[in-house]
Design brief:
With 387 residues, the protein is mostly helical. The chain contains 13 helices and five strands. A hairpin with a 5-residue loop joins strand 3 and strand 4. The longest helix is centred in the N-terminal third of the chain and has 42 residues, at 79-120. The radius of gyration is 29 Å and the shape is globular.
Amino acid sequence: MISSLVHSNLNPSFQVIPKWGLVKNPKFVFQNHFNFLKSRGFGEKGLNLVSGFEFGSLNGLKKSGFECKAYEADHSKPLDLAAQVGPSEAAQKVKISVYFATWWALNVVFNVYNKKVLNAFPYPWLTSTLSLAAGSLIMLVSWAARIAEPPKTDLEFWKTLFPVALAHTIGHVAATVSMSKVAVSFTHIIKSGEPAFSVLVSRFILGESFPMPVYLSLLPIIGGCALSAATELNFNMTGFMGAMISNLFFVFRNIFSKKGMKGKSVSGMNYYACLSMLSLLIVAPFAIAVEGPQMWAVGWQTAISQIGPNFVWWVVAQSVFYHLYNQVSYMSLDQISPLTFSVGNTMKRISVIVSSIIIFRNPVQPVNALGAAIAIAGTFLYSQAKQ
């Protein structure tokens, strides 16, 4: 907002041209425009310049196309600009809403099919490998067909990406191991404790300090997770530890990603694609060593005999939807603030927990549900306090 207009003669190459014609005294134009506003009852109020005078050059009287209009400071916005600004803001809100709805829906579908596959085919290392392979294949085809623009990378890019990919691989496999042993809802309740790991790692390893509200928000997270774990009817230590390890390494992934990707001009979609490809190269040898083709062949035959041909579609669905939901989440980060993303991630976890309980009909005790609610509420408070 400005309350007065002062003309300077330091740069005589430009002058103000009102819509009604060219004059050679910019001060005259501003003063007369201000007097005109006063004569219409606007008084001595401050003016906002938003888009009325056109600027031109003295040499050739060439217009630049820039336009300004003045309106009173207590007016919310000029009427002729509402139609221009409004739709763009509304379109951005709609775009973000679509991202969030798609992200949540894809995540729910992935978790449902992932659990179905793991119930019939309890080989989490191969399941994790297939999901990374599917994402890598999708992006390679997209780049080759020019559906998506290939990223411009160099050796330094892949060097900085390696620790991110290593942490992502361990976190992904650990989460899949957890889901193979316990209910999807329980895994996600424990994974809602990720902020506690983030603060602890940042404080004791990186030496960062946080405001007191951040530390206080960890109390309901830790307490809620502990209460839920203690009252879980189908508690399994491997499943519990898998979720905890996943939390820890996803925190390291986020830290490495922030440190290593500063100044890199790679879109969220392509960044996750490169991350998937490097993670696939890391996990494949370990999957063969831990489980191996012989175990996979026996398990595959057993699953086909029990489920039928639909089992193949389950595997395809869990692999494809894993990549899609992660890709949309990384694309969302390009459009929204970290705080909005944290809130969206909290709501996503709620939708996964509720939908998995309904679909798989997992028995839930009231105390267990209370623990989950406390942990998720703590996660929400953490996202607010962190910002």
